[in-house]
Automatic annotation (TrEMBL):
Family to which this protein belongs: Belongs to the 3-oxoacid CoA-transferase subunit A family.
GO molecular function, one term: CoA-transferase activity
Keyword Transferase: yes
Protein's organism: Adhaeribacter swui
Gene3D superfamilies according to UniProt: Glutaconate Coenzyme A-transferase
Pfam family, one: CoA_trans
Protein name: CoA transferase subunit A
Origin superkingdom: Bacteria
Keywords (A to Z) from UniProt: Transferase
Length: 231
């Protein structure tokens, strides 16, 4: 069995380049590839196109790359927690493509499945529909949306094995399994890494065939965006 383990995040991201298109798993700050984002920041890659549900917050997640002016274009669904994002959008520094969340998920799934395009009713009659092909099916109007692919997909899992099989925990599953299928190179960071064959096949969410590199991550913060407690 092929061993896809690499020693650290530096080796895992060694062939990332300026101008790359990168998918990053996560929802809010849940299930984001913290180690990979930190390495992108350290190596200071520029002109990146980032595909993610959201842009993190000002001082964590993708917000760190935004603050460092490394992202040229953001393809996302929700960006309401990031003041730096708003600033760069309004100033024209950042190119943005906002996509309904379900459409974003389906575009990624389609890209990973080799489906070039599909029709969806989401966004019809709104600004989302501008410039897109529209067709009627059974009396309802639909937009043509294209599948999404990326040079690299960076995903975060709870547990993985050296063959690249992944298991996600709870809501940290979110966009990670979809993105793992849609990258030309998929890189997984995991909290726990075990030898191939130790994971129960019935519980694997992402088969190792989709993963090119895997490494054990370090020092996860797992922040909460909006902490609410009783008085």
């Amino acid at each position: 069995m092929i061993n896809k383990e690499v020693a650290n995040v530096q080796i895992a991201l060694a062939d990332v380049f300026d101008g790359a298109t990168i998918m990053l798993g996560g929802f809010g700050l849940c299930g984001i590839p913290e180690n990979c984002i930190g390495e992108l920041l350290r190596q200071n890659f520029k002109n990146l196109t980032c595909i993610s549900n959201n842009a993190g917050v000002d001082d964590f997640g993708l917000g760190l790359l935004l603050k460092n002016k490394q992202i040229k274009k953001m393809i996302a669904s929700y960006v309401g927690e990031n003041a730096e994002f708003e600033k760069q959008l309004l100033s024209g520094e950042l190119e943005v493509e906002l996509i309904p969340q379900g459409t974003l998920a389906e575009r990624i799934r389609a890209g990973g499945a080799g489906i070039p395009a599909f029709y969806t009713p989401a966004g019809y009659g709104t600004e989302i529909a501008q410039g897109k092909e529209i067709r009627e099916f059974n009396g309802k109007m639909y937009l043509l949306e294209y599948g999404l692919r990326a040079d690299f997909a960076l995903v975060k899992a709870w547990k993985g094995d050296t063959a690249g099989n992944l298991i996600y925990k709870g809501t940290a599953r979110n966009f990670n399994p979809l993105m793992a299928t849609a990258g030309k190179v998929t890189i997984a960071e995991v909290e726990e890494l075990v030898p191939a064959g130790e994971l129960d096949p019935n519980y694997i969410h992402t088969p190792g065939i989709f993963v090119q590199r895997i490494f054990k991550g370090m020092t996860y913060e797992k922040r909460i965006e909006q902490r609410t407690v009783r008085t």
